[in-house]
């Protein structure tokens, strides 16, 4: 299986994606723990059906110290007891930020207020940026049918 389009073989696509990749690098200095951001990336990628991003972010999360149990339970985080309240708030915000059309009202005030109990304004800005960014990557990869399974830890850094 191969992708429909080589996103770095096209000058037009390269002009766009280099900025998305730069935005990803800007989040590397986030005050939100990397483990939380990887859980968010995994959850959004599950919702969007992005195998390439799931491949990358589950491997990167494991390399950063996430346990298999926590990785396996991301899809059922509401019922799982292995996440902190802050992680749960980030995952909830991720779900609402990913399923904007499904909620009918975007992100409800109570979801935002719950996140704000655990994160300061700078961290909230990073959470919003992380959600927007992973959704951009998901959409690009799903549209071109980017294959999954071959990602090596650190490959994207």
TrEMBL record:
Q: Which SUPFAM superfamilies match?
A: AhpD-like
Residue ranges of every copy of the Carboxymuconolactone decarboxylase-like domain listed in the record: 22-95
**Source taxon at top rank:** Bacteria
Q: What are the alphabetically sorted keywords of the record?
A: Oxidoreductase, Peroxidase
Q: Which GO terms describe its molecular function?
A: peroxiredoxin activity
State the protein's name: Alkylhydroperoxidase AhpD family core domain-containing protein
Q: Show the taxonomic lineage.
A: Bacteria, Bacillati, Actinomycetota, Actinomycetes, Kitasatosporales
């Amino acid at each position: 299986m191969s992708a429909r389009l080589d996103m770095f073989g096209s000058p037009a696509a390269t002009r766009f994606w280099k900025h998305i990749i730069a935005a990803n690098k800007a989040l590397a200095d986030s005050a939100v723990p990397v483990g939380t951001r990887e859980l968010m990336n995994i959850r959004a990628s599950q919702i969007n059906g992005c195998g390439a991003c799931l491949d990358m972010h589950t491997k990167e999360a494991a390399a950063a110290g996430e346990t298999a149990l926590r990785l396996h339970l991301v899809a059922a985080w509401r019922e799982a007891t292995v996440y902190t309240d802050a992680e749960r708030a980030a995952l909830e915000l991720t779900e609402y930020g990913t399923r904007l059309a499904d909620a009918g009202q975007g992100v409800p005030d109570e979801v935002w207020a719950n996140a704000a109990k655990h994160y300061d304004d700078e961290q909230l800005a990073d959470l919003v940026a992380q959600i927007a960014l992973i959704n951009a990557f998901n959409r690009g990869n799903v549209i071109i049918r980017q294959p999954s399974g071959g990602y090596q830890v650190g490959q994207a850094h």
